[in-house]
# Entry
Amino acid sequence: MAELKRVVIEPWDVNSRLARLGLTSEVLTKAVESAQGAWSACTENDPPNFPGIASWAAAVRSLREDLGLQKWIRVNDTGQPLIVNADETVALTCTSADENTGREGIFDPKTNSAKGPRTKEKVECNAWLFPELAEDERVRNDAAKKRRVHTWLLLIH
# Structure
């Protein structure tokens, strides 16, 4: 059996999958553009780690502002800024990621920094949403029982 694609690139497929999550490519694109603008506004006079923090904060703010208009709510879960849909079934946050982000290829994208056990637990619970990503039906069923809110990371490179 041929392996199904993990990276979706066709606009109709992207829009279809985002719609299932209650999202649009425009909202995500604006968040990425906000992140890039914040990074670009930094100078050599800023502390070395500030461009990354400013970029991350701008992306979070953009998502919260745009999705807040659609009745999504802000949640800060043990230091992790989330935006959660009104049904409390989908949560979104963002993080920096490597050069494999958004590209078809043999390597999956990875975050630029290690994430804690809470983030890992949240993301693992999403496997059932796209059956082609789950290795085991039992894992999908267990994940669905563990959480009602499924957390997604917007990876920005």
Summary: The longest helix spans residues 50-68.
